[in-house]
# Entry
Amino acid sequence: MISVRRAAPGDAAALIALAEEVGREDGRWILATDSWRSPGEERKYLRVVRRHPDAAVFVAVTDGRVVARLSLARDPHPASRHIADLGLMVGLDYRRQGIGTRLLHEAVAWARASGILKLELHVFPWNEPALELYESFGFEREGYRKGQYARDGGYVDAILMAYHVS
# Structure
């Protein structure tokens, strides 16, 4: 059984392990290709986020193991405070089981409670499974950003996607 909850500082090591696991995959799904934050930095980040009204981190847990992470942060600029950025990662063995969709529903609930009108995210163009997930949920492609991220000694493109919260 999968449960979804706010991340706690005690989840730091598990979240780092998840990010490093996903980062090592052949698909190159996330920005981090070598290491994540240190456990101390991750614990500090999670403590701050738990108290911050404009950000949240949720985890999906099964059998006591963190298998997915969803991060949200409101844009701080006054003209775009109605928008939040979203990041999602699901462990390889737990994909295509509805966990990503469940976390996206959690993101929408958080957005509504926070007065967010639009959720945005970036997806690498080669990440077909993520594009499929987001589009099936209702995200739309809003743009294509060439050379958006520095990665592995070069620059990679990203697709900008958005979900309008109703």
